[in-house]
Sequence to fold (416 residues):
Amino acid sequence: MKAAGLQVKTSKLMEVIPYNDDKKMKKIKLVRITTVPISLDKLLTGQLNYMNGRGFEVTMISSPGNNIEVLEKREASKFIPVQMTRVISPVKDLLALINLTRVLRQIKPSIVHTHTPKAGLLGMMAAWFAGVPVRLHTVAGLPLMESAGIKRKVLEYVEWLTYKFATAVYPNSKRMEAFIVANNFAPTSKLKVIGSGSSNGINTANFTVTPALTTEAALVKNNHHIGNDDFVFVFVGRLVRDKGIEELIVAFSELNLNKEFKNIKLLLVGPTEPDLDPLSASCMAAIEQNPQIIHVGYQPDVRPYLAVSNALVFPSYREGFPNVPMQAGCFNLPCIVTNINGCNEIVEDRENGLIIPVKDAEALKAAMQLFLTDKELFAKMQTKARPMIVERFEQQNIWDLIYLEYQHHLKIKNIV
Fold:
């Protein structure tokens, strides 16, 4: 079926309603909420602008942050700041809930769609209190997976409560959906994975080698003394324990001692978080003192760093559906990932990468060594890396499916 020039496949339950571009036609109000603005900026890039062009008036809500005007312009959406914390804080959380409810009552949206755990809880409750008919929450990672004791019990209750207030819940991977069902957080009737997974898919055209990117990559190599004969392992993300950085530094340091692998480098692209999840003093010392480890901090554009690399290492403890392995795959980088939600759905073992156990520095070291020694296997994985991402996770397809979900729920509520 065609809708406003868009070719999509639909079911009888989800039929696309053509959008009339006449500016006089009233748009449907949609609010997207995350805890911090970087999630709107990085996790949902382009999606809100797409929805604006499909008949929605989108408002973004998150904690205050920097470069908001740039975000508003790119997504063609208004930003409203509401202070929220990422940690459990009863007084601050209650204040945030009151403020969110007040803002939503003023906006009167038809749909509220939340992301990230704290924004999910507060956003779904506030939307219910404000009488919002369609309340959707995307699950892209569960901190409780790495918690225990009373803290885990609290976080489990938070998830259950979030889903209770939601109209529908979207785990962004099949494994995440199975985990939610196994823990009785929500009935299966309320759960759905969009497409093959992911919250936003990936703009594969943006993650490809171009002449301009080749020039930027050459500057990166020159600035960080990366030679043409160097084999570069790259990690992209926050440098915290939960991302497996402790194991990565141990594995690389031991591999680096082998004279056979004197031309290897480890490129770390991302910030540390000393307040929330600090690395050990020994790990930080290894990063700072080993000349073969290059830490470039947070980078607004990771593409030049992927372009200079040979393989991605992503030994995270928990994820929803991470963007980084998809981005790396688009640059033909085989990936080493842990056997966790999302990662094991992006990577197929020995096809476009290797899957290893969580928190296992020896297994990580062995996988990295295999990349260096088995040239035939590595070349096969290089060849398959990009096609496997393009086929399953092209961004436009994900956006189309989310749009169909919106139409489906609006139709149920007799709003369209």
Summary: Residues 211-392 form a domain with the Rossmann fold fold (CATH 3.40.50.2000).
